Amino acid sequence: MASVALSSHSRFFSPRLCAFQKSSKTPVFQSIRHPIPCKYTSNLGFLEFASSTVSRRSMKSFLRADDSDSSVIDLKEDSQINENKSEGGTALKNLSNLKALIKVYKKAILDGDEKTVSEIEAMICIIEKEKNELVQKVDALSADITSGKDKYLRLKADFDNCRKRSDKERLTLTSVAQEEVIGSLLHMVDNFERAKQQIRPETEKEKKIDTSYQGIYKQFVEIMRSMQVAVVPTVGKPFDPSRHEAIAREESQEFKEGIIIQEVRRGFLIGNRLLRPAMVKVSAGPGRKKTFTTTEKSTGQPTAAFD
């Protein structure tokens, strides 16, 4: 049995056999199982001395010598780990490096290399810490995006409301300015109306002057109409307190109660808004028979322009 083991050992590790033969200590042969599967054999004979044991690093050196390809890979992995550690312990950037790290970690556990195990565990802790920091950053960025989106929607709604409010205020301001300008010109309309009622041209020259005035008044009326200015209806219409201003109530055989019987001063509208209410007299209904004369509306071309 000893000769068989010795011959097997001499076939694989003849240099070590010579070195062991020079030792003065009695060798003891023991058959153990290889800690990691080897492509050459699964059972090898090792020499064990009574005074000392083979160190773990010697076992690791033996395993690397037994499998040269695995040794090259392990050296690359150790170099990668040292490089990552020298750069501040940053995490591995791709899945292949992570798989290699796990492989080295498993091998270190099997070899009992506590230093390598502790280094890899420290690196895993660093990776976990960096992962948690990245998760927190992603959550913070997601919250910022959501908050920014909500803020954008609020600002957009505020801008739309502000624009609508500005447009409305602009239209209101334009309308108010227009009403003020037109309202200041209504007195001119009243003067033209009174002049038409009082002046009775007799000579040819007076008729020409009256025609000129009426032509100017007609142009003025056309401008007012282009600005959507209209006359408030009065005589024969029901009294409307929102458009009419009653200055008297009189009995009338011609009109029913509540109907306007006379216009004292014209009222005007601009669009649907009231510029000036019309001053009128309202019928109080039929009473004693009484001759009643209504003041007719002034006739002529300018008045017809508003009607």
From TrEMBL:
Q: Which family does it belong to?
A: Belongs to the GrpE family.
Gene Ontology MF: a single term:
protein-folding chaperone binding
The name on file for this protein is: GrpE protein homolog
Q: What function does this protein fulfil?
A: Essential component of the PAM complex, a complex required for the translocation of transit peptide-containing proteins from the inner membrane into the mitochondrial matrix in an ATP-dependent manner.
Compartments it resides in: Cytoplasm; Mitochondrion matrix
Task: Show the segment(s) annotated as Disordered.
Answer: 285-307
A Pfam match: GrpE
Q: How does it assemble?
A: Homodimer.
Reply yes or no: does the keyword Chaperone apply: yes
Matching Gene3D superfamilies, A to Z?
Answer: 3.90.20.20, Head domain of nucleotide exchange factor GrpE
Q: Which GO terms describe its biological process?
A: protein folding
Keyword set for this entry?
Chaperone, Cytoplasm, Mitochondrion, Stress response
Compositionally biased intervals (Polar residues) = 292-307
**InterPro entries reported in the protein's UniProt record:** GrpE, GrpE_CC, GrpE_head
Q: PROSITE patterns recorded for this chain?
A: GRPE
The organism is Protea cynaroides
Name any GO cellular component annotation. mitochondrial matrix
